[in-house]
Design goal:
The chain is built from 14 helices and 17 strands. By secondary structure, it is an alpha/beta fold. It binds pyridoxal-5'-phosphate. Its EC number is 2.6.1.11.
């Protein structure tokens, strides 16, 4: 036997060395917590010093099924042993399965797989522009997006992200983008003209501070789009995939987008996103219009397929509905009892507590207390836990949070 096979080739670093090397070698685009995460199990994460954390961030709404899910891991391992990548010049079965599952879950007709959310937005924007071009024979399409939105960091996605701070240094943005006020139908109507090809917004604004769309707004925009022949793009990269208690949040409003973007929990950790569209709209894209080397590769699609399968098998949506009702009650109690907690907003297991102070200190304290949370906007604590949490996990989260105020 080859004894050397078991020998570690890698130099083992301690926690401090990992942090120092990261700060030396990685481009400094994040202020990170001084914690090195090492492994996960269920809804818990462990750092390199063995400290345990209850995870109410799920890697930013990604790890819906919890960590170390055996069936999910086994499906990935099996696909790795079979075939990881092909190229989009060939068919592969996992992509067909994932597309079938995603169209069934969303009511969309066709799918294009990407590697991230921002790429899903790029694709959605290109599809809307191409659809307009086919219809009007002109390439002067405009898009209406929302203030305080977040759609990603690549240039197209950044251009529809209503946050001056993110855009400031990177101009000029792609032209023809206008910003309306979220949940203010009149502000959208004011911006519409005969060049408007699409209106894009998040069904629940995530990074902007956890703001669900009002029923009047989403219905009003849908009606406006129908009247004017404008495409409705709903970004469900964060709020989709069961997070709000339905597979996609728009399904609770009784409206349907023309183009839908999905990512984050779609692969539950394996980088995969998608934009999906109705048949009518999707056919505007033809060979040569859009492409990707990795997008829709067998490994990523095996993950997505397994995610859809496990959502059904583990009754994830039922769990979200049940546990989120309980979670909302507990969060509402905090609004009643803690001075600096102003308001709760959210749907399902996508919740936000707005504070009258910067949430930074509370979130840091929560980390000390073994609870992982993220912020949203400037003054909101965001809760986007794995969708498999129990009421006991909620109790533990609330206890740790209370201690952190
Ligand atoms: C995270 C996010 C994106 C960008 O996704 P990435 O995978 O980070 O590129 C886009 N839209 C929304 C609503 C998001 O939450």
């Amino acid at each position: 036997m080859c004894a050397h096979k078991n020998r570690k080739v890698r130099v083992i670093m301690n926690t401090q060395q990992i942090i120092e090397t990261a700060e030396e070698k990685l481009i400094h685009t994040y202020n990170r917590y001084q914690i090195v995460l090492d492994k996960g199990d269920g809804v818990r994460l462990y750092d390199t010093d063995g400290k345990e954390y209850l995870d109410f961030g799920a890697g930013i709404a990604v790890f819906a099924l919890g960590y170390n899910n055996k069936e999910y891991n086994d499906a990935l391992k099996a696909q790795i042993d079979k075939l990881i990548h092909t190229s989009n010049y060939f068919y592969n079965e996992p992509a067909v399965e994932a597309a079938t599952a995603l169209t069934k879950a969303s009511g969309m007709d066709r799918v294009f797989f990407t590697n991230s959310g921002t790429e899903a937005i790029e694709g959605a924007v290109k599809l809307a522009k191409k659809y307009y071009y086919v219809k009007n024979g002109k390439a002067d399409a405009e898009i209406i997006a929302m203030q305080h939105s977040f759609h990603g960091r690549s240039m197209g996605a950044l251009a529809v992200t209503g946050n001056k701070h993110y855009q400031e240094a990177f101009g000029p943005m792609i032209p023809g983008i206008k910003f309306a006020q979220y949940n203010d139908l009149d502000s959208v109507k004011e911006l519409v003209n005969d060049k408007t090809c699409a209106i894009i917004f998040e069904t629940v604004q995530g990074e902007g501070g956890i703001y669900p769309a009002t029923k009047e707004f989403i219905e009003g925009v849908r009606k406006l789009c129908d009247e004017k022949g404008i495409l409705l793009i709903l970004d469900e990269i964060q709020c989709g995939m069961g997070r709000t208690g339905s597979m996609f949040a728009f399904q609770q409003y009784g409206v349907k987008p023309d183009i839908l973007t999905v990512a984050k929990a779609l692969g539950c950790g394996v980088p995969v996103g998608a934009f999906a569209a109705t048949e009518e709209v999707a056919k505007a894209l033809v060979p040569g219009d859009h492409g990707t080397t990795y997008g829709g590769n067998p490994l990523a699609c095996a993950a997505a397929t397994k995610v859809f399968e496990l959502f059904e098998k583990q009754h994830v949506l039922d769990n979200v509905k049940e546990v989120s009702a309980y979670f909302e009650e507990k969060l509402d109690e905090l609004v009643e009892t803690i001075d600096v907690v102003v308001e709760r907003r959210g749907m399902g297991l996508m919740q936000g507590l707005e504070l009258s102070v910067n949430p930074k200190d509370v979130i840091a304290k929560a980390l000390d207390n073994g609870l992982i949370l993220f912020s949203a906007g400037t003054n909101v604590i965001r809760f986007v836990p794995p969708l498999v949490i129990t009421k006991a996990d909620v109790d533990e989260c609330i206890a740790k949070l209370k201690k952190s105020f």
